Structures are given as C-alpha cells and as structure tokens.
C-alpha cells in the first residue's frame, strides 16, 4: 500500500489504512484486524460480512467519500438481495472493493466479538468470543495418485483457507465426514472448537454452507433444580430457558444426605450420576423443542454447580466431600465431550466445560458468581451472597477476594417451615404486619395485589392461599419483630403479651396466625416458634459466614451487598437487614444480581477468555473453611438474636425504633440449637 | 564438581564425570544422562536402579577402583536383599554413594532403553522406549486451608518429583483417584502415557509402589485372523501370544464382500464393527488369562490392519474403499482411549494407537511391514511381499520406496482350492514329485516326517491327511511343472501325455492325484485344472504388482526378496520362484520376515519414536494404485504362464531344465480369466 492508495476507515473501531484499488472490504478489514465476521471466507455465500459504507464529508476523519468509493453492486450481492434481502445501505464486505477513500461502518451483527447487553442494569456486558465458530471450506477431492484421507484434505483446506493448524476430529465426526463431504459436493461447514490450548477440534459439520445456527447450553445444576439457557453462539441471545427438578432429590433433599446415600449404598453415587444425566438429557431435548431447533445444533454446554453436584455430574464418588478435609477429586475446570457424560441428547462430540471449584464447599457455582459479579474488580468492598440451601459468600474488592460457604439449610427455600412451601402460585411471598392492629396483609405468587386490595380474593380464588415460601417467611419473621410480636431473642409473645388474639398457644410456646383459610377449606397459615428458630439458625449461619470473611479481611463493615441466587432476587433487602441476615449497609447499597451463577455460566459459554479469567481468579481467591473455624461458631451463636434497635425503614412503618419487648418465659427457649453440617 | 572429586565411569555407555563425595550413583547417572531406570525416584523401594560396581585396575579407563569406592551396604539394601534378593555384586544405585573413583556397570535390566533382540536373524533390534512408563510419587495430603483437588496435588507431585508438566487424567482415572490415594497412604504409582505431543496422560494408577508389571497388546487385525502379542512394556518380552478368527468372516470372506455387505445393509458396517470389537475383547481376556495377569495391567494397544479393517475397527463405514478413488476417511495414525473402541476388556483409559495407512488399498499393515523391514534404509533394492488375501508389496532402497497392494484372492490361503484347507494339523504343507515315477511324497502339519519316511503313517493316524494348505498347493503346482505334469501355460497333461495314472480326466481337463485316502475313509486329494488356474491368477496378480513397482522404479530386477506374512514364513522360496510368484533373484537373496506386520506393531508398541518414524515414512512412500494402472493388466496377463526354462534348484532334482512339454488340447483352456476387484 502506498500514500496514493485509497484510505479506508472502519467505524466504530476507528482502524484505518491505505489499500490498493480493488481490495475487497473484507480483506482490508482482516489486514487491519477489524472485527468483521465471515464464515465462508469471502466467497459471497454466507453474508456474515455485511457492512454499511458512509458517503459525504467526514471532517472528523479528514476524508470526503464519493459515491464511487466502493465498486458497483455486483451480481453476487444481487443474488443475495433477491434471495434473502439486505438492509438498505448494506453491502457484502467480500464483494464490495475499495475504489476511493471510504468510511465503512461494521454493524454489531457483523462483528464476531459483538457485545450482548444483559437485562440487569448493574451487570457486566458479555462480549461474544465463543469457543466454537463456523468455518466454510472447499475440500480437494480425493485422487488415487495422492491417496490422503478425507480428514487430511479437510485439514489441509482449513490450513490453506483459514490458516488453522492441527485440527482434530473425534470418531462421531470421522464417521460422518465422508457422506457429508460428498453430499456437499466437497464443500462443508465445520464447527471448530478452540476452547483451550489443545488443538482445535471439529465438533460438528454440515454439507455446504450451514445457515441453521449454532447453539450452546448454559446450565446451572443446583441441588434442587436444574436451569438451562439455550444460547445462540453467534449472537449471544438466549433462545430459550427451561428448568427441571433435580431427580436426585429422591436420594436426599440436601447435599449431605446425598453424600450419605453414596456412603451407605455401594454404587449409590453412580445411581445418582445416572439420574442427573438422564434429567439433563430430558432438559436438553425439551429446550431444543421449545426453541424449535434440532438438538444436533447444540455444540457446547457449560455447567456450574456446587462441589457435590460437580462430582456426581462427572461420575466421581462425592464421599470425600462429606468429611474433613473435604477433598475434591479435582478442583480445576474440566473439559470433555458430551459423550463422556452420557449426554446422548447432545451430539457426542459436543464440548462440555465445567467451571473450576474454589474449595470442597465452595463450588463452580460460586466461581460462576465471581465471574458474573467480579468482586475482584470492585472499587468498594462488596459482599456477595448467593442464597440457597447452601449459601455461597464472597467478600472482596480489587485488592483481595475471600470466599466461604455456609450451611444455611433449606429454611430459606420454605422447607422445614410449618406452613412452608416452594415458591409457586398460591404461596405467600410478601407480608406486612400493622404495628398497631397486629393484623397481617400479604401478597401471593400469581397475583400482583395485596390481600387488603380490591379484587385480591377474586384473583386468588383459583390458586387459594396455600402456604408461605422462602421470601415470605423471611418477611414474616422480620415484620413480627417490627410489630413487637417477637422479642430480640426470637420468642413469640402470648396474646396477653402482644395484645392480639392472632398469637395463640402452641405447646409451651406460641404461634402467630397470618391467615385462616379453614372456612374455605384452605389451610391455617401460622408462624410457629419452630419456624422462627429455623429461620434464626439459617440467618445466623449466613451472617456468621459473612462475618467470618469480614474478620479475615479485618473489617467490620462492607460498602455494598449483592444478593444472588434465584431466591436472592426475591428477598426484600429491608427485611433481610432487620432479620440480621446481612451486615448493615445503606439500603441503596443492597442490590440483587438475580441468578448470578447462571449468568456466570452464560458468560463462560459466550466468551472463552472468561474461562481463562475465572480459572485464574479462583486460584487467587482466599478460601475460608467455616467448618473448622472456631470464630464461625462464635459468630453463629452471637447472630442468633434479632436485636435491631432502629427500624431501618421508617418510611414503611410508624415506629422509629424496634419495640423493646421481652417474652422470656424462663424455659429453655432462649438458646438456639446448633445445626451441624452432614 | 571439581577436579579433586571422584571420577565416576559408567559402562557400557562410557559416560563419565566427577561428583562430590556422597553423591548417590543414581544422581550421578541422571546428571550424565546415563540410561539407569528408576520408578520410585530414588527412594530405595523400586529396586529398578540396580548397578554393578567394578573394582581393581582399569587401565582402559585410567582409574583404579578401591574396595571403598562406594559407600557401605546400607539398611535399605539389606531390607531389599532379605525380602527379594539381589544378584551377587549388585547395589541399589539410589543408596550406594560415591566415595572414590569408580567404574559402574548398568546391567541391561536396569536400562530404560534396553534392547530387545528379535528371533529372526535379519530383523532389527527393538529399543525399548514405550509411550507408557511408571512413576512413583508421594502426594501432599489435602488441607482445608489449601483446598486444591487431589488431582491437582498429584500433578504438583509429578512436577516437583519428576519434573513432568501438564499431566491430564480421564474420568475413569479421576473416579479411582481418591480411593487409591487414600489406600496408598498418599503414595501412588501412575502409568503415564506420553505417546505424542499431547500432554502426558495418566492411564492407570495403583496405591503405593506398583510391582505387578505393565503390559501392552500388539495386534495384527487381519481379514481372516486376529493375532495379538501381549508384551511386557518394561522388558519388551512377549509374555503371551494368541489368535482368534475374525468373526466378520460371516459377513464375507474377503474384504470386498464385507464392503458390499456394508453397502447393501444399512447399519451393516456397525454390525461388523461390533463383531470385531467383541472378538478383540474376547482375545484380550484370553491372552491375559494365558499370561496370568490382570487385564487392568494392559495399558496400551497398537493395531495394524488393512484399510477396510481399519475403518471397521474405528467404526467408520468402509463404503468409499469399495469404489474408485478408494478414499480413506483418514490416512494418518489414530490415537484414542480403549473406551472409544468399546474395548471393555481393557481399562477404559488404556491408550490405543493405530498405524497410519499408506493409501486406500495399502493399509496400516503395510506401514507396519515398512516399519519392521525398513526398505527405506536398505542399501540394495529390496522387494518385500506380504502375502495374504491381499498382497502388500513394497519395493525400495535408501533412495525411494514404492508400495502397492494386489488382489491375489484367497487361493494362497488354501481357499477356493478343490482340496484346499486352512493351515491346520493334517494339511499337506510340503510336497515333492519324483520326476521319473511322478509319484508324490509330502509332509503334513503336525508331523516332521515325509510320507515316505518310517513312522509317518503311524504319527499322522490321528489327524489323517485332510487336505492341502496354501504353502502345499504352491509347492504342488511348482513340482507338477518340474515333473513335466504341467505345461508352461499351466495345463495338466493326461495319463497318456504324462505317463502316470495319477493324471486322471476331470471333465474336459485333468487332475493330478496326490493322495488317495478313501480306503481309510479319508479324502482323495487332487490338484485340479481349476486349482492350477486359481494359483495362476493369484501368482500373476502378485507378480504383476511387483513388476508394476519395478516399472515405476525403472528397474527390471531386484537385489533381494523378503517374503512376509504368517503365510510368507511357510512359502518355499524355491517353489515360489519356479511358479513365477516373485521375480528371479539368487536363492540366498530370498528371506522370510515372518509376520512382519505383527512385528511392526510390536515395534510401535515398544518404541514411541518408531511411531513418529512410520508416520514420516508413509508420507514419503510412493503409492501405486494397481486398479487404475493399465500396465498392471498387461503384467498380469503376461505373468500367467509358468515358463521357467531352467530348474532353479537342481540339487533337489535330477533334471537341469524344466521339461519342454505342451498339453494344448485346442480347447479354451489356454487363457486365464481375469479376477476383478470387488
């Protein structure tokens, strides 16, 4: 290129260079390192390299672009226009050639590394850089005088047409190679996986130019539910989302009972492995059906899960995770073929990636939260709590990140609560107790109205009021404390002590009546002293974990709190703070990250660099083991009370301080029992 | 080390260096690059590093070795001596330390790269350098404060104790890792495979020090039979050999009928794949039983086979190999886990290597012959013929090697011959016809005597005389020609023409009676005109292939001939030359290489460098496709006759020239029918 050659300026990158007359725009983009997509390698058949030339004066760039700055619209473009249509002003970058100074815009959909904006406002943007990409190649036909194999000629084509070396292919691909090459008349589109430093691997192939898309699954494999997002690997869009119950529940509700099952029953671990893999196959088939795609287009899957699920997914006995020192069989990220996991619903050569585990109790799900929420990049000190049956807790900023897990138990998910239920239509999810009348109003899942609003009863007639879910019980306990129905130790007062007939005796203790549906054949929904104790244990464990990390970090307050987990999205930060689940921070410093673990899985699915990032980050995280830390016990016991002296949200209540009540009966109800792990 | 430090001289390598007082002999050997084995890394438990110090004057080396040149016999050595015994004069290299100038001999069994001498005198020596070796390591126990996985700590131990990086492990290993580490109290022996440029891979592991040996299978997967050699990967010894029929025979006797079966029956290729894999499992179980080893000790398998068997083994439809241009799905060497081939008898993580194919008709078996016989290193021009249902033919010397295959058909294996049978007890394997009496004497498999020797009939009474095998029919035809029973065109004369009642009419032609066993209830064994024709077709195809390579090379004679193949070992070179199977060379220039393909498999099993060598060599071989070469047809037709004018082995016969007879009857029997491929 010389100073007389036309100047080509690409936007939005601003990259520029001079190119000889007649240079295709795609070639110029390639040479400048401009992010312009192409699957067919410039043959004018894939239309991925669409660009928009701009004409006129560009003082900012110091050029004037004439109408003839690009070659004329050609027959290839016309054919594509007739067949599929091009947006106004668009050209094919491989067909339009440079004829004069020109400014060329690369629209987002033509960028390989396009950015995918997530819904949550606080969240990071995902930049597309998936491990798998499509390449169209034309392969030399076989020849008796040069008798190399079809695979070797395909490799040669990938080298000469895309400069990609050392490509490998597994047997399922090798088996399909010969018929596909012949069906495509020696042209083929290959899905090439370059997920780590191993040689690139062909994971799928189609005759001719493949235009059916390319998909991946981001899977959050929880103890209770398995959630999957089917993601378009070219655009980053979530095409479909679906969930399924983890069938391992029949072997034990929580993780430790599943580990016990494996310990007590020879082969029990493999039984659980089979169960979860079957469920994953069902889920994959369902989600592909929902999205109306062929499952053979799913070429990748990324998993996040806790350590026990991690081992059970991989077919490793989790028994060591049930006893100190909680040794993982492997902590690093794991990559393999779908066939290795018996995921028969996916192509056998689909590539699976499982995020690394942080420690024996802090799994790939916590790593995924770290990837999504990036505490290590935070300027201020962030506490990130992923609330579930186990709580994963991360504390950190740019200087250092700490992590632990805390055995909160299933109370936060509505389990082990007298009127508790899973979050489903009919479940009370929010509650307010009038501090004067001590009456409760509430909202149930499936209806936007409060129970004291017009139409509530009509709208909930079908579902009924069936119970109280995790977020509902947290609000109920906090509201009871605010309304003076609970003393700081968590004791429910009698009708006499509280001045409401809603407090009724129940054995040696009392219960508070939220709603009596017996007249309509529904349940009587109360909060019992046992429920209060269960929530106190759970919140103490959560708080103690957070405090332990703060001790390690040498701080007694944090700058902000992020509530993550499917459940985190529904917890009222206000009530969580009244309850003492989380350390005190200004209300506007509590945010919800939604299903941050699932988001982390999506990020790792869409961006191979993010995999390397989280593999590096987990090594730098300081792991704190709650099970062996005496201060954890200390914090746990100290956190049992609900001692807030000041109402943190006076705008919602008529009182400025929490009531100074005490319902001690002299009985044994003052102390909390310690729930033990396992 | 300084000039004052003791001088340590190792034999037989002659490597020498000075080392500080107290340096263990193993350490000195390592630093000098002396080939001294150690599995335990110098901990005094594996006893692989045994050495023999020599004392006294060594004028050749310029040293005198005193009795105190090595440290005293220590307790570790005593313990080993008490437990297992050491040969007289032996020391453990990791325990004995240098105390003065010393000459140390490393006996062959202490060398990693020891040489294995093969039985065949002409054959290359195999130098041991297997892909898999044992390493003993002590792994750090897990610790809650440093919660890495067990695999990661094992990797760290391999790095720190053996300087081996980036070790990987498949799921079957990962699943066993935790119990094995605990059973071995955190010491473990791993079998580490370093077969190519991929990261080293753990393929087996045992608690503590493993002393049960390490084995590999070298498998010659033929169309008709599958032969395996169980080889000790530490010593190179063949521990057991076993064979089994290829069960694919039920789908077709020859390769092209199997390809046809796959073409005509959807899924037929997979049916054949399952059949051969099942047979391989049976064979692996049997051979391990023969050798009294646990099959879990078989950590590698190397396969050689023709292209059709290659595809059927790998689960690839061989249909393209049945039609021009005979395209292989892949021609390169293939490496994989045993589990990928459903070889359930082997550990799932055992490593399989399949030699590269040379061309669509010249397979990994021919590559193995090239590896074993090394035509590319020959000073003189060698013709190597691997005789089987297809003949693989290699012609070359240091300057250039050519290869082709020729469709000889099954006649050389006794099939399609009227009295033909497989080589088994009772089969005639050698025959001589008296040129005067025209009577035949013969030898059968299972008896060393000739039929005219005393005791022959008693010794063969049990088996009987059941038929004639491949080598027998070749000798019979050649002897008939020598005895004047056949004319140069291959016509059998009548009793009148030949002067013997053994020539009897059979339709319009004649047959020669070798042996009439009907009186004892046995068969009447004759050579019919059809048999002569079948052998003529087979030998013409073989000869035409060899001639075609000679044409390509521009020569009309070769310096030597190597007959390979299980059958090659039994062909009489003399008769082969009379028959015109091979070009004329001096008799002492015809050698047998035995099962050269199987030997090639063993070499690749024992020496990983040999795999790289053959992968390079096959690319340099000039492939000649007989199916499309008009000159092949020409040579084929011209080779039909048996025109030898001079008896090449007068010492065995009383005549100096072949009889000038002609039995033309004027009928249509003069020309050969052309057998066509497929």
Total strand segments of chain A: 31
Helix/strand-derived class of chain A? alpha/beta
Query: How many angstroms does the end-to-end distance of chain A come to?
Result: 71 Å
- Which percent range describes the beta-strand content of chain A? 15-25%
Seen as an oligomer or otherwise, the chain set is homodimer
Show unreliable segments of chain A: 666-678
Envelope shape of chain A: elongated
Helix run count of chain A: 16
Mean pLDDT of chain A: 89
Largest inter-chain contact set: A-B, 46 and 46 residues
| Largest beta-sheet details of chain A | 6 strands, mixed
Summarize the structure.
Two copies of one chain form a homodimer. Chain A is built from 16 helices and 31 strands.
């Amino acid at each position: 290129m010389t100073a007389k050659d036309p100047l080509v300026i690409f936007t939005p990158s601003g990259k520029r260079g001079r190119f000889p007359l007649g240079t295709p725009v795609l070639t110029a983009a390639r040479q400048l390192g401009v992010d312009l997509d192409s699957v067919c390698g410039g043959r004018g058949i894939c239309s991925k390299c669409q660009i928009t030339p701009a004409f006129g004066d560009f003082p900012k760039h110091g050029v004037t672009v004439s109408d003839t700055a690009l070659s004329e619209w050609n027959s290839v473009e016309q054919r594509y226009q007739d067949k599929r249509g091009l947006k106004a002003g668009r050209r094919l970058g491989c067909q339009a050639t440079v004829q004069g100074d020109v400014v060329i815009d690369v629209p987002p959909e033509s960028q390989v590394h396009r950015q995918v904006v997530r819904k949550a406002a606080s969240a990071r943007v995902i930049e597309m850089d998936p491990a798998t990409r499509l390449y169209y190649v034309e392969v030399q036909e076989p020849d008796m005088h040069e008798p190399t194999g079809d695979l070797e000629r395909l490799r040669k084509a990938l080298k000469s047409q895309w400069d990609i070396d050392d490509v490998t292919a597994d047997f399922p691909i090798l088996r399909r190679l010969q018929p596909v090459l012949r069906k495509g008349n020696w042209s083929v589109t290959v899905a090439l996986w370059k997920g780590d430093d191993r040689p690139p691997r062909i994971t799928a192939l189609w005759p001719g130019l493949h235009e059916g898309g390319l998909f991946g699954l981001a899977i959050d494999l929880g103890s209770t539910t398995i959630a999957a997002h089917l993601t378009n690997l070219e655009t980053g869009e979530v095409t479909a989302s679906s969930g399924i119950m983890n069938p391992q529940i029949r072997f034990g509700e929580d993780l430790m009972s599943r580990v016990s099952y494996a310990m007590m029953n020879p082969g029990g671990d493999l039984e659980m492995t089979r169960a979860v893999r079957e469920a994953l196959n069902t889920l994959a088939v369902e989600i592909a059906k929902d999205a109306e795609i062929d499952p053979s287009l799913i070429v990748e899957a990324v998993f996040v899960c806790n350590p026990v699920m991690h081992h059970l997914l991989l077919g490793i006995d989790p028994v060591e995770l049930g006893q100190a020192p909680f040794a993982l069989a492997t902590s690093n990220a794991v990559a393999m073929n779908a066939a290795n996991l018996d995921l028969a619903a996916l192509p056998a050569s689909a590539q699976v990636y499982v995020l690394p585990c942080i420690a024996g109790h802090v799994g790939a799900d916590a790593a995924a939260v770290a990837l999504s929420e990036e505490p290590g990049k935070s300027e201020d000190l962030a506490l990130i709590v992923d609330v579930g049956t186990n709580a994963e807790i991360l504390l950190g900023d740019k200087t250092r990140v700490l992590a632990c897990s805390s055995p909160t138990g299933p109370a936060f998910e509505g389990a082990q609560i007298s009127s508790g239920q899973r979050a489903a239509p009919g479940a009370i999810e929010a509650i307010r107790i009038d501090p004067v009348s001590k009456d409760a109003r509430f909202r149930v899942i499936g209806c936007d109205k409060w129970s004291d609003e017009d139409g509530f009863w009509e709208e909930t007639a079908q579902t009924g009021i069936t119970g109280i879910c995790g977020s509902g019980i947290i609000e109920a306990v906090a509201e009871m404390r605010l309304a003076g129905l609970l003393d700081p130790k968590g004791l429910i007062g009698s009708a006499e002590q509280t001045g409401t007939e809603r407090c009724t005796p129940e054995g040696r203790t009392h219960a508070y009546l939220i709603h009596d549906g017996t007249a309509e054949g529904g349940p009587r929904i109360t909060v019992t002293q046992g429920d209060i104790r269960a929530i106190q244990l759970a919140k103490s464990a959560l708080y103690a974990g957070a405090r332990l990390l703060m001790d390690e970090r040498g701080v007694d307050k944090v700058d902000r709190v992020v509530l993550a987990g499917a459940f985190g999205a529904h917890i009222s930060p206000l009530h969580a703070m009244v309850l003492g689940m989380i350390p005190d921070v200004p209300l506007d410093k509590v945010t919800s990250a939604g299903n941050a673990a699932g988001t982390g899985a999506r990020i790792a699915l869409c961006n191979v660099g993010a995999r390397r990032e989280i593999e590096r980050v987990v090594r730098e995280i300081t792991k704190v083991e709650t099970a062996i830390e005496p201060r954890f016990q200390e914090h746990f016991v100290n956190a049992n009370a609900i001692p807030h002296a000041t109402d943190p949200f006076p705008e919602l209540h008529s009182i400025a301080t929490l009531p100074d009540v005490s319902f001690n009966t002299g009985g044994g109800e003052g102390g909390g029992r310690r729930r033990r792990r396992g």
